[in-house]
Specification:
The protein has about 425 residues and is α/β, with parallel strands linked by helices. Helix content is about 45%, strand content about 10%. The chain has helices at about 35-40, 45-50, 75-90, 100, 110-130, 155-175, 200-220, 245-255, 265-270, 275-285, 310-325, 345-375, 375-385, 390-395, 400-410, 420-430; strands spanning about 30, 35, 45, 95-100, 135-140, 180-185, 190, 225-230, 240, 260-265, 290-295, 335. It is globular. The structure holds D-xylulose and cobalt (II) ion. D-xylulose (XUL) binds near residues 138, 293 and 304.
Length: about 425
C-alpha cells in the first residue's frame, strides 16, 4: 500500500477553497511579469527532513513510523519511491538531497560510494518518468562521528582526506542527476572551544577544500552553481560561515567570489541576528545571491527549529529582495523544513508543503505588486538623488582637501531630511493586509 494512498495530486482551487489539501495561492502556470509562478519560485522538497528525519529531539527518539526506515538498500529504494509519490502529489519542480539521505551507510568509503552510485541510478530512472528535477545536491559531512571535529577544518588530515573523497562522489552524483547547483553547508566547520583550536590553520584548510571543489567541478563537467550556506552556530558553538558578510570575506580571500554564491536560509539569518531580507539584500548587493532555504525559526526558542514559513510579511519582504535582484537564475526556494514531531500522518507532510508553497506564492504576488507599483523604489532613489549631481559624483574620485575647499567656497551646510520609515512601513502593510 503506497504511503500516500488516498491523497490526490494537489490542485489550485483559489483563495476561497475550503479544501485543506488544495492550493489557494500557488497557481503554477499563472504569470507574474514575464514568468509563471512555478518559474519564479522554483520550489524544492528536502529529502532529509521530509523522508529521513525521524521526529527525535534531545529528550526523546523517533516518533515517526515510516515504512522506509531501515539501513539497507531495499529501504533506501522504498524511501525514494515514497519521495517521488510525494513529488507527484505536490507537483513541485525540484528536490534536494545529501548523500546520506538517499543511501544506506556503508562500512567504508568504497561501500558508501557503491551505495550512493546504486541509489543515484535508481533515482535517475525514477526521474525519467517524473517532472521533478534536482535543484541541488550536497554532502553530509557532519552526522557521522568521524566528523565530530569538522570535515575540511578537522585537525586530523585523514578526516580531511575522507571529506575530500566524499565531496568528489557527491559532486559526481549531483552532476549525474542533472543538478542545477551544488551546496556546501559547513556542518561542523567551526569550533567548540578556542582552547584546542588553531583558527588560522582551519581557515586555510577550509579555503583549500573549497578551491578543490570548484576545480574538480569545473574540470569534470559539473557546470551548475556552487554555493555556501551560511549559519552562525549549531551544531558548533561558532560556525566559520557565520553570515553572508563573513562568507563574502572568506570567498574574497581565496579568490572565489566570482565562482561561489550563497544559499541563504531564513532561520540561519535569524540565528545570526539578522532579518532574512537583510541577508538577501546584502548578498544581492555583493553579486552572490544564489538560492534560499525557506524555513523559519521559532522566535522564542532561539534555536534552529526548521519550520515551514507562515508569515506573509516575511515572505513578501524576502521575494521583494529576490525580485529586485532579478529573480532566481539557477537557485530556487527549498523547504529545508521539518514537521513538528507530533505531526505523524502522511497528510501532515502534504499539508506542511501546501502551506509553505501558498504563503511563498502569496508573498511573491505581493512583492511583485510592490515592485510594479514602484513607490518604494522611487523613495529610495529620491533619497540618494543628490548623488546624481556631477559635483557630488566627482567627490568619489577627489580628495579631502579639495572637498574641504568646495565646502568652504559654496558654504555647504546640509539640511537634515526625513527618512520616512513609518510611511514606507505603512506602504508595505497595505500590501500584506
Ligand atoms: C542545517 C541546514 C542543512 C543544509 C544542507 O541547518 O540548513 O540542512 O541546508 O546541509
Ligand atoms: Co539549510
Amino acid at each position: 500500500m503506497p504511503y500516500f494512498a488516498g491523497i490526490d495530486p494537489v490542485a489550485y482551487e483559489g483563495p476561497e477553497s475550503p479544501n485543506s489539501l488544495a492550493f489557494r495561492h500557488y497557481n503554477p502556470s499563472e504569470k507574474l511579469g514575464g514568468k509563471t509562478m512555478e518559474e519564479h519560485l522554483r520550489f524544492a522538497v528536502a529529502w532529509w527532513h521530509s523522508f529521513a528525519w525521524e521526529g527525535g529531539d534531545p529528550f526523546g527518539g523517533r516518533t515517526f513510523e515510516r515504512p522506509w526506515f531501515g539501513g539497507d538498500m531495499a529501504h533506501a529504494k522504498a524511501k525514494a519511491d515514497a519521495a517521488f509519490d510525494l513529488f507527484a502529489i505536490l507537483g513541485q519542480p525540484y528536490f534536494c538531497f545529501h548523500d546520506v539521505d538517499i543511501r544506506p551507510e556503508g562500512a567504508s568509503f568504497a561501500e558508501n560510494t557503491a551505495n550512493l552510485e546504486e541509489m543515484v541510478d535508481y533515482i535517475g530512472t525514477k526521474m525519467e518518468s517524473a517532472r521533478t528535477k534536482l535543484l541541488w545536491g550536497t554532502a553530509n559531512l557532519f552526522s557521522h562521528r568521524r566528523y565530530m571535529s569538522g570535515a575540511a577544518t578537522n585537525p586530523d588530515p585523514d578526516v580531511f582526506a575522507f571529506s575530500a573523497a566524499t565531496l568528489k562522489t557527491c559532486i559526481d552524483a549531483t552532476a549525474k542527476l542533472g543538478g542545477e547547483n551544488y551546496v556546501l553547508w559547513g556542518g561542523r566547520e567551526g569550533y567548540e572551544t578556542l582552547l584546542n583550536t588553531d583558527l588560522a590553520r582551519e581557515r586555510e584548510q577550509a579555503g583549500r577544500m573549497l578551491c578543490m571543489v570548484v576545480e574538480y567541478a569545473r574540470k569534470n563537467g559539473f557546470n551548475g552553481q556552487i554555493m555556501i550556506e551560511p549559519k552562525p552556530q549549531e551544531p558548533t558553538k561558532h560556525q566559520y560561515d557565520y553570515d553572508v558578510a563573513t562568507v563574502y570575506g572568506f570567498l574574497k580571500d581565496f579568490g572565489l567570489e566570482g565562482e561561489v554564491k550563497v544559499n541563504i536560509e531564513q532561520g540561519h539569518a535569524i540565528l545570526a541576528g539578522h532579518s532574512f531580507e537583510h541577508e538577501l539584500a546584502l548578498a544581492a548587493s555583493l553579486g552572490i545571491l544564489g538560492s534560499v532555504d525557506m524555513n523559519r525559526n521559532d522566535y522564542q526558542s532561539g534555536w534552529d527549529t526548521d519550520q515551514f514559513p507562515v508569515s506573509l510579511r516575511e515572505t513578501t519582504l524576502a521575494y521583494y529582495e529576490i525580485l529586485k535582484a532579478g529573480g532566481f537564475t539557477s537557485g530556487g526556494t527549498n523547504f529545508d523544513a521539518k514537521l513538528r514531531r507530533q505531526s505523524l500522518d502522511p497528510e501532515d507532510l502534504v499539508a506542511a508543503h501546501i502551506g509553505g508553497m501558498d504563503i511563498c506564492a502569496l508573498g511573491l504576488k505581493r512583492a511583485h505588486a510592490m515592485l510594479s507599483d514602484g513607490t518604494l523604489q522611487a523613495a529610495v532613489e529620491a533619497r540618494y538623488s543628490g548623488w546624481n549631481a556631477p559635483e557630488a559624483k566627482a567627490m568619489l574620485t577627489s580628495d579631502l582637501a579639495s572637498i574641504a575647499a568646495r565646502v568652504e567656497k559654496e558654504a555647504i551646510n546640509p539640511a537634515p531630511r526625513s527618512g520616512q520609515q513609518e510611511k514606507l512601513e505603512n506602504l508595505v502593510s497595505r500590501y500584506v493586509a
